[in-house]
Design a protein that fits this description.
elongated; 421 residues; 53% helix; alpha+beta; 2 domains
């Protein structure tokens, strides 16, 4: 006869899992535990993937109009006095590895007036040729092109937020009031009439403050000085912006500084990290509750199997072996729930583009109203490392849940359990 070796504790534990129980409540708690772990893991994967997607969308919108980094005068310092000084710095930066674009710009605060309304805006002067190499503004244009920003035409591209609030359409005129300081220090505001050459999707820029784009030569003609200029930089990889900016800092004179997009928008991403952490902890409580159900189920199983435990001990099974039996039972249930949750969570995340229309059709409303939210769809970014840590955390919780019942089973006295049998 061929003898097949089975590890004793896992073999008996798996038999307990497969065996049909006459205890309905124990069976019910088992299924509740399995489903609870699965739903908790699935919810964690979906929510974290959606928040990763939102983070990516916000990052793309933030750098779409402002590039990966900017070179500006240091606090309390003045930039180069003439255009030639900025051109020399730009030429030096273009030769550096990892830098794919450099473009000059000027920003001034102004007041846009379109009777009967007025709105504070940021007027940004750009070079239409080089700007396309550092930002994605050309992809965000809804009406008009960068070629419409011809020097001397006083044309502007209007963020859609400004266009809605002021009621501006292509071809409409609006007046810009630009505060300037004369040489003697007295305020000398300037009025300039410009014409809308088109509009673009301002995204988060319109929520931070309205943005108007004009030719850099026109903005200089309105009174902006070369010392108020700056440079936009684009790197081969946006995520390398902090290290690249630090490396490029040594190429700049002491009166200039380089600020990357992670510094400009640190509050956004700090808030997202806090939200992701808190959401993870809250959803992990679902898995913890399911793990407590595993504890309750195993405790009841230990009570129901006292005679079996006593017989195993009488036949020579050690307390550690008995612990292994019930730990195996709990782990199989918990890990089956984790596997189910990972599968469900990944499937939901990958098919979110089908889930979102289904939810909107079922409940009859837009999840993200475009009039309210800058991101109007549910973005997802499924990252393997997140799936791994969620699965590992759930597995650890289910492992911890098996320790107390298994320890209790190992301490069942055989003589007392068999006394009345």
């Amino acid at each position: 006869m061929r003898r097949v070796f089975h590890p004793f504790a896992p073999y008996v534990g798996l038999r307990y899992v497969r065996a049909r129980t006459h205890k309905f409540f124990v069976s019910f708690i088992t299924w509740v535990s399995l489903l609870g772990v699965g739903l908790g893991v699935a919810a964690l994967i979906v929510i974290i993937s959606v928040m990763n997607g939102f983070e990516g969308e916000i990052r793309d919108q933030l750098v779409a109009l402002s590039a990966h980094a900017r070179v500006v005068p240091a606090a309390g310092a003045m930039g180069p006095e003439d255009q030639a000084g900025w051109d020399a710095i730009a030429a030096r930066l273009r030769t550096q590895a990892g830098v794919v674009g450099v473009a000059p710009y000027i920003e001034v605060q102004s007041l846009a007036v379109h009777q009967p309304d007025m709105l504070p805006v940021v007027l940004r002067g750009i070079d239409p040729v080089s700007e396309s190499s550092v930002s994605d503004i050309a992809k965000l244009l809804r009406d008009g092109t960068l070629k419409d920003l011809t020097a001397g035409d006083d044309h502007v591209l209007v963020g859609d937020g400004i266009a809605r609030q002021l009621g501006i359409a292509r071809g409409d005129a609006l007046t810009l009031l630009i505060p300037m300081i004369a040489a003697d220090g007295t305020p000398t505001p300037k009025l300039r009439e410009v014409r809308a050459a088109g509009d673009f999707d301002g995204g988060l820029q319109d929520q931070q403050g309205g943005l108007l784009l004009a030719n850099i030569a026109d903005v200089r003609a309105m009174g902006a000085a070369a010392s108020d200029m700056g440079l936009h930089l684009r790197y081969a990889n946006a995520m390398d912006a902090p290290t690249m900016s630090q490396a490029l800092r040594r190429l700049l004179p002491a009166n200039l500084q380089i600020i990357d997009w992670t510094v400009d928008n640190a509050s956004y991403f700090r808030a997202i990290r806090i939200e992701k952490t808190m959401m993870s902890l809250i959803l992990l409580l679902i898995v913890a509750v399911a793990a407590f159900n595993i504890v309750a189920m195993l405790v009841m199983t230990v009570t129901d199997k006292r005679n079996d435990i006593a017989i195993l001990r009488t036949l020579g099974a050690s307390p550690r072996t008995v612990m292994g039996v019930f730990m195996t039972q709990g782990l199989v249930i918990g890990w089956a729930g984790v596997a189910m949750g990972v599968l469900l969570g990944v499937l939901l995340t990958v098919n979110m583009n089908h889930v979102e229309p289904f939810l909107e059709h079922t409940f009859g409303f837009h999840l993200f109203d475009p009039e309210v939210y800058a991101v109007t769809t549910i973005p997802t970014d499924l990252q393997i490392r997140n799936v791994v840590w969620i699965a590992v955390a759930a597995l650890v919780l289910t492992l911890l849940a098996t320790l107390y019942p298994a320890l209790r089973a190992s301490r069942v006295p055989p003589a007392e359990a068999l006394r009345y049998e």
